[in-house]
Amino acid sequence: MAKARHFILIASLALLSACNVVLTKEPLFSQADAAGAPTLRTGVWMFFKDADCQVDETKPFTQWPDCVGGGLVTAGDVAGHKGGAPAGVLEHTPIVLAAGEPRILQAQVDVDLSVNASATTSGDATATTSSNSSESKPYGYGAVRPTKFDSDGRITAFILWPVQCGPPPPKNAQGEDEAPATLKPLPGIVMKKGDAVCTTTSVAALRGAAKASEAWAPQPPRESHWVRDAQQ
Questions:
Q1: Are 220 and 149 a contacting pair, CB within 8 Å?
Q2: Alpha helices for the chain (secondary structure H)
Q3: 175-184 pLDDT, tens per residue?
Q4: Beta bridge partners of 94
Q5: Band of the pLDDT at 186, cuts 50, 70, 90?
Q6: How far is CA 88 from CA 58, 69, 79, in A?
Q7: Distance, CA of 217 to CA of 203 (rounded, Å)
Q8: E strands within the chain?
Q9: Nearest by Cα to 222 from 12, 3, 77
Q10: Alpha carbon distance 142, 71 (integer Å)
Q11: Predicted local distance difference test score (pLDDT) of residue 183
């Protein structure tokens, strides 16, 4: 299973909270792919609060509890507090919110691929992406559906679901997955038997997977929303 470290954007949005997700070694989108579509309103955002989480949104997001994710969205970037980092130290990650239907969010992910990660590494099943080098981090993808806009047409709320490799694997009698990922990869999605994740080099295949994955998204969907313009 792909284990996500506490990285504010991806961990909060649950892109890698489970196996069976699409990762790529190289980005499939650039900022040019976002042109012409509504952008995220810049400022402080709240990402995916747990249902029973109590949080005072007026406080700096670096002081919010672990049951909620917060980050500072700028043009093409999200900054968040990484677990274990000194207070006030933010980690930045570039993002692309590609145009199209559905919108697709791309971001590099700090993830340890601890089980048969050959889909995103050089083929060594024990290799991981634990290095701090941004060049070693794979790219993860989520499908985005905006739900609210401000008067300038900027996105102020959205729901997101992870782009999956295919339908989730069947369950055994104990209710556990019979495989680490799908047994039926979607068209254009590449994975080896026993892999926990998959990959592709095709934007069309990724977008097709994004559309199909809505049916397997966690329920009920949780909404992320803009909080304020202030820095923290």
A1: no
A2: 8-13, 203-213
A3: 888 888 999 9
A4: 77
A5: very high
A6: 17, 15, 11
A7: 20
A8: 2-4, 23-24, 43-47, 69-74, 77-80, 91-98, 103-108, 111-113, 139-149, 155-162, 223-228
A9: 12
A10: 17
A11: 93
Which two tokens mark 90?
């933010």
CA dist., res. 39 & res. 83, Å (int): 28
- Higher-confidence residue of 7 and 180: namely 180
Structural domain tally of the chain?
1
Q: Residue 193 has what DSSP assignment?
A: T
* Residue 156 Cα distances to 8, 40, 49, 52, angstroms: 18, 6, 16, 22
pLDDT digits 0-9 by tens, 192-221? 988 899 999 999 999 999 999 999 988 888
Parent domain of 141: 2-228
What is the pTM (predicted TM-score) of this model? 0.83
111 by Cβ neighbours in 10 Å (0-12 / 13-18 / 19+) ranks as buried
Q: Which two tokens stand for residue 204?
A: 């069309």
**Integer Cα distance of 15 and 154 in angstroms:** 23
Cβ neighbors of 124 (< 8 A, separation 6 or more) are 118
